[in-house]
Amino acid sequence: MTSGRIPLYHVKGTHYECAHSIGVITRDRIRQRIADDMGELSTLFTFIQTECGRQLHQEFIETIRLLFPWYWDEIRGLADGSEVPLEQILVLNFLNETITAQRLFEEKQTLGPTNKKFINETGEKGCTTVLLNRKDTNTFSLLHNEDHASALYLTGYLVEADIRSSEYDDGKRQSPNEKFIAYCYAGATPGTAFGANKHGFAFGLNGLYPKYVAHKRLPRQIINRALLSIENEQDLDNLLRLYPVAFGFCINGSFFRQNNYLLNYEIGPNFNKDNENYISKCFVINDDQKQNRKQDEGYTVLNYLVHYNHYERLNEVIIEQKPLGSTHTRSKRGQELGQISTISDALNLLGDTENEAYAIFHTVEKNRNICTLCTAHFNFQTLHLSIYESNPKTTHEPSIIYNLKDLFI
């Protein structure tokens, strides 16, 4: 089943070649996104011309080129293919870090931000995710609302990429062979929203919003991009433990070809120790798995978990931006809707519009720069990714159905 609004592009080649192809294909989408969101992006484009902004991005570039040079090639490929200035592509890829650094810079200059509307909306453009693992209803799924700026509503897209390895550092290192499907924001590398790879790892991400940015680390976009090459749970744990991140985010996922449980990670920079992250890992297990679970195997939740855009387990060690009204209001509404037992229950929650100001599902509205771009459902029993372009509570059929088995070929 194909979609009218969200296209699926197929690319094959090296990291640079695939990104260059996407840049060419989505050139108009990238330019349209920037034009439609210029009211907010112009502030960031101005900020990166300051010494503070230039230093922030230069430190990110140096860290990426050192640790993941193949993903730096993807950023270059996007810029070259789209013919959009590299400086603007960098803002789109370092977005949350740049927004927060700009806010801190402005506070330092004026002792109080002058553009409160822009700053306060940082935490409003978040996502809602349901992890569902139940034996009583025979359900094993991950469902996810992808929320962001309205400028992405007509410019987002899916990409299926088949990337071959390349040599780096005079043959001392090689980039990974990758095959994946991912929902992408125009102008940004894959990985920031939801996706699945050939190893059977599927995920949906929630933005988290520490008050500060850690310098000389990796922006979250690069860690998120690396998720599309992860092979197993140990590989994922090592990625989060060994590579210092500059900002916060949450991973909801499953290694559905290897394990029959779901995972939720909250991640953020540890400012007290150089090059370390705060990490909280949670297992979403069912009743049968509970019987065999050892007490020392970590934090567990039974049957289901709903995650929004605030820290729930690291909130005592990470200082968050305020007020984050949307995420806390959505969380309260989710509790009012009660227990989630079925896929239908999850779709009803993700489609809820009860609170007009802070709805769980945001409809596209004029003069409001936030909307739900789409809703994704990874069904790990049927091995299908279903995508709803409109409210999943009232839409009976998804617009796109993708067979995850196609990634294993």
Which features would summarize this protein structure in a list?
409 residues; alpha+beta; Penicillin V Acylase, Chain A; nine-stranded mixed sheet; six-stranded antiparallel sheet; 13 helices
Describe this structure in words.
The protein has 409 residues and is an alpha+beta fold. The protein has one domain (8-408): Penicillin V Acylase, Chain A (4-Layer Sandwich), CATH 3.60.60.10. 33% of the residues lie in helices and 25% in strands. It is built from 13 helices and 17 strands. Strands 1-4-7-8-9-10-11-12-13 form a nine-stranded mixed beta sheet. A six-stranded antiparallel beta sheet has the order 14-2-3-15-16-17, covered by helices on one side. A hairpin with a 4-residue loop joins strand 5 and strand 6 (173-174). The longest helix is centred in the first third of the chain and has 17 residues, at 51-67. The chain is globular. 50% of the residues are buried. Residues 136-393 form the Peptidase C45 hydrolase domain.
Task: Count every helix, treating DSSP H or I runs of 4 or more residues as helices.
Answer: 13
Coarse morphology: globular
Category by helix and strand content: alpha+beta
Average pLDDT value?
94
- Please state the CA-atom Rg, rounded to the nearest Å: 20 Å
Note the main sheet: 9 strands, mixed
How far apart the termini lie comes to 20 Å
Task: Provide a short characterization of the protein structure.
The chain has 409 residues and is of the alpha+beta class. The chain has helices at residues 15-25, 27-36, 38-47, 51-67, 69-82, 86-93, 95-110, 116-120, 220-226, 233-242, 287-291, 325-337, 343-350, and strands at residues 8-13, 128-134, 139-148, 157-163, 167-168, 173-174, 178-184, 194-197, 201-207, 249-255, 262-269, 277-285, 299-302, 304-307, 371-379, 384-388, 400-403.
